[in-house]
Amino acid sequence: MKGIARVDKKTKDLAKRIRPGEIAIIKHRDIDEVAAESLVNAKVKLVINLDKSISGKYPNLGPKTLIGSNIAIIDEASKDLMEKINEGEEVEVIENKIFKSGELIGEGRWLTKEDVQQQTEEAKKNIAHELDKFIENTLEYAKKEKDIILNGISIPNMKTQIKDRHVVVVVRGQNYKEDLSILQSYIREEKPVLIGVDGGADALIEFGHKPHIIVGDMDSVSDEALKICDEIVVHAYPDGRAPGMERINKLNLEAKVIPAPGTSEDIAMLIAYEKGGDLIVALGSHSNMIDFLEKGRKGMASTFLVRLKIGSKLIDAKGVNKLYHTGVKIKYIFALVLSALLPIIIISMYSPIIQYLLKLFQMRLKILFDF
């Protein structure tokens, strides 16, 4: 297998620039489903991972997603491989060995469908242990963050009118495309405030919508999205440090800064809540244990606290594509055609011309078949 190599320790950054048919060289322990889907969408030929794609910590879904899309994986490749390959160089894989210009530069092991299945099953046995750690970490972080989250954080004045409007918070998470596709008619009719959380803003643009607000640390959103949105909120560390502002300044844009613990999607939901949003629809957000473990942040306490706070105003759109399908079934089309034809048939039976034609047809049949 031969191809141009793209190299990056961050899969989400590599997925933005890799082209179809190229080889992704990453260092990603426990490849998550969202990262895998980004590589599938990029139509990569091969993934070479310098780490374990499935460590056994929990049953992550990334490798299954890649293998299921016929993208091969070389796992646990040589640790120094990234130092030996420059962006855009051609590499060749023969058996489990990796070559550049005919020179052996590393090796790994092929991860087969059977390997993925077996390792995933083994990881499921460890889920109880991980759940215990997750709960302990969540409680620990919840004690530290409860006053900040539940008693309110300082939300600056927003240009976008949110009060008494529906708000859709879009995160580029699992099945976000399917769910966003299903919500198209709702967005057109209700015209809610659209908040993109980092790359969620690009998801909105992909579906033809302009994000009103972008919230995040600015590490995975495009320049295009930042330039066309109405306003930007940079999520900073609780101590006020905001690395994302450096990028905003380079683009000569303006942004508001909110120092707070937790995730950027938590901040987006709090903005919608504190500014009087009538209904908050979370799309692509983290809502189950595997989501939280894939996110990688210990505990994810802030997410629980925020959801407790905003309560009944929150609707989670995750998986709505499996609940509701807009496709028109054949049986409905048949019933519609039949109901339209029925009155025409009844009226025709009472028409003298139709009756005359039917008698002629009956006589023709008698003559033809001699009866």
The major pleated sheet works out as: 8 strands, mixed
Total separate domains: 3
End-to-end Cα distance, whole Å, is 75 Å
Order of strands side by side in the largest beta sheet?
Answer: 7-6-5-1-2-3-4-8
Mean pLDDT value: 84
Number of helices: 17
Low-confidence runs: none
Helix coverage percent:
40-55%
Fraction of residues in β-strands: 15-25%
> What class would the helix/strand composition place it in?
alpha/beta
Gist?
This protein has helices spanning 11-17, 33-42, 62-68, 81-84, 113-124, 127-150, 176-182, 184-190, 200-206, 223-228, 244-250, 264-274, 289-295, 301-310, 320-323, 330-349, 352-369, and strands spanning 2-7, 23-26, 46-49, 72-75, 90-94, 97-100, 103-107, 109-110, 166-171, 193-197, 213-216, 231-236, 256-259, 279-283, 314-316. By secondary structure, it is α/β, with parallel strands linked by helices.
Can you walk through the features of this model?
This protein is of the alpha/beta class. It has 3 domains: 2-124, Aconitase, domain 4; 127-323, no CATH class; 330-369, no CATH class. 45% of the residues lie in helices and 18% in strands. The protein is built from 17 helices and 15 strands. The chain has helices at 11-17, 33-42, 62-68, 81-84, 113-124, 127-150, 176-182, 184-190, 200-206, 223-228, 244-250, 264-274, 289-295, 301-310, 320-323, 330-349, 352-369; strands at residues 2-7, 23-26, 46-49, 72-75, 90-94, 97-100, 103-107, 109-110, 166-171, 193-197, 213-216, 231-236, 256-259, 279-283, 314-316. The strands form 2 sheets. Strands 7-6-5-1-2-3-4-8 form an 8-stranded mixed β-sheet. Strands 13-12-11-10-9-14-15 form a 7-stranded parallel β-sheet, with helices on both faces. α2 (33-42) packs parallel to α3 (62-68), α6 crosses α14 (301-310) and α12 runs parallel beside α14 (301-310). The longest helix has 24 residues, at 127-150. The model has no long low-confidence stretch (mean pLDDT 84).
